[in-house]
Amino acid sequence: MSANKKAADTRRVAVDSSISDDGIDPKRRRLLVGGMATTAGLGAGALGVSMLASMSPSARAKAAGAPVEADISKLAPGQLLTVEWRGKPVWIVRRTEQALGSLSSVASQLADPDSIEEQQPEYAQNESRAIKDEYLVVIGICTHLGCSPTYRPDIAASDLGSDWEGGFFCPCHGSKFDYAGRVYSGVPAPTNLEVPPYMYLDDNRIIIGEDDGVAA
Ligand code: FES
Question: Which residue owns the Cα nearest ligand 1 atom 1?
Answer without folding.
Answer: 145
